[in-house]
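Long-time lurker, first post. I've been practising inverse folding by hand and with some scripts of my own, and I keep getting stuck on stretches where the structure tokens seem ambiguous. Below is the full token string for one chain I'm working on. Before anyone asks, I'm not after the true native sequence, just a reasonable design that respects the backbone. If someone could post their per-position residues I'd love to compare against what I wrote down in my notebook.
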């Protein structure tokens, strides 16, 4: 049965057991099997948690010290709604999260200013993910000097992927 909203008016509506029980019943009735996961504990009491909360917990599909090129996932990405890729270069850590689809391309970019020469470095790599593998497609590295000179810094793979997480 759908919840029927009550009208509350400041200074007029009386807060009583009947109205509060109406709210409690509405909450209890919204906890349907579709959005509740039940687990029996040792004490024979039920613990409830919403599937929404469960979906926020990710599963590690890959973890390493950092890889610059193509690699195989430890667990397939198939069946996950979102993928989050954690990466680093020059001590700067970031992540990118996207909706999973086989052969989806994604980009990892790090921008930082060097303390040594005041250049702004821009590292970018494009990748492709499928069920079991992430493949580096291209890399481009540029820099910008204080006098606005732009230059190429080669195509060495400075960005390292160190963790991949899947979300249901």
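-- Answer (accepted) --
I ran through it position by position. Result:
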């Amino acid at each position: 049965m759908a919840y029927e909203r009550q009208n509350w008016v400041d200074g007029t509506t009386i807060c009583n057991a009947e109205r509060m029980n109406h709210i409690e019943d509405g909450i209890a009735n919204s906890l349907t099997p579709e959005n509740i996961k039940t687990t029996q504990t040792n004490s024979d009491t039920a613990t409830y948690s919403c599937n929404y909360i469960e979906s926020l917990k990710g599963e590690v599909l890959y973890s390493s010290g950092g890889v610059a090129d193509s690699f195989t996932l430890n667990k397939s990405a198939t069946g996950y709604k979102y993928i989050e890729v954690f990466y680093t270069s020059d001590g700067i850590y970031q992540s990118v999260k996207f909706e999973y689809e086989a052969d989806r391309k994604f980009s990892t970019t790090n921008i930082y200013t060097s303390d040594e020469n005041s250049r702004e470095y821009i590292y970018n790599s494009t990748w492709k993910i499928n069920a079991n593998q992430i493949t580096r497609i291209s890399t481009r590295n540029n820099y910008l000097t204080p006098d606005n000179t732009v230059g190429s810094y080669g195509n060495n793979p400075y960005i390292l992927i160190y963790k991949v997480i899947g979300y249901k």
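A couple of notes from the structure itself: Residues 58-167 form one domain. The helical segments are 17-30, 51-56. Happy to go over any region you disagree with.
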